[in-house]
Design brief:
globular; alpha+beta; 164 residues
Length: 164
């Protein structure tokens, strides 16, 4: 069963991302700001709902080896681990992921997004909307910098939501 609210939020996020790129390229700052706020609301809702459902599945004993857990293990984005404070602050000036970086699984990425401290974006040459954010260390997980393509995030979130 595909959760309707999650599906609607994913579709809105997709649209906001396309609009964000368009407004940014047209130098329409007020529209960029407005759409950015709405996109972050959608991202936060999607992340929180998926993590809440994951926790409920774990508590009910139906998480392990489920299609839902498998979909959370798909890769979505890249991360640079053990980022120090200076590196984490630098993404505000230069939204580029440091090297070496590695692929990050969707579950890990959304958990870190929930614990983000700073976020920024960049628009690639092919008009991809990339979110880059830093996350503090928590629960024995080192501080890091993570980036993901918003459209890829939407596709992965849809894949996860199919199993809700």
């Amino acid at each position: 069963m595909f959760d309707v609210e999650i599906k609607e939020s994913i579709n809105k996020l997709r649209e906001y991302s396309y609009d964000f790129v368009k407004f940014y390229k047209n130098d329409s700052r007020d529209d960029v700001k407005r759409v950015s706020k709405e996109a972050i609301k959608c991202l936060d809702f999607i992340v929180n709902e998926i993590l809440r459902i994951r926790d409920n599945y774990k508590e009910a004993g139906i998480y392990r080896n489920s299609d839902f857990s498998g979909s959370l293990r798909e890769y979505c984005g890249k991360e640079y681990q053990s980022a120090n404070v200076t590196e984490r602050q630098s993404i505000i000036r230069i939204p580029i992921l440091p090297n070496p970086n590695t692929s990050i699984r969707f579950e890990s990425m959304i958990t870190k997004f929930k614990h983000r401290e700073r976020a920024h974006f960049r628009i690639e040459v092919n008009n991809s909307h990339i979110i880059i954010f830093s996350a503090r260390a928590f629960n024995d997980i080192p501080a890091s910098i993570v980036e993901f393509n918003v459209q890829d995030f939407c596709q992965k979130a849809e894949n996860v939501a199919k199993y809700i």
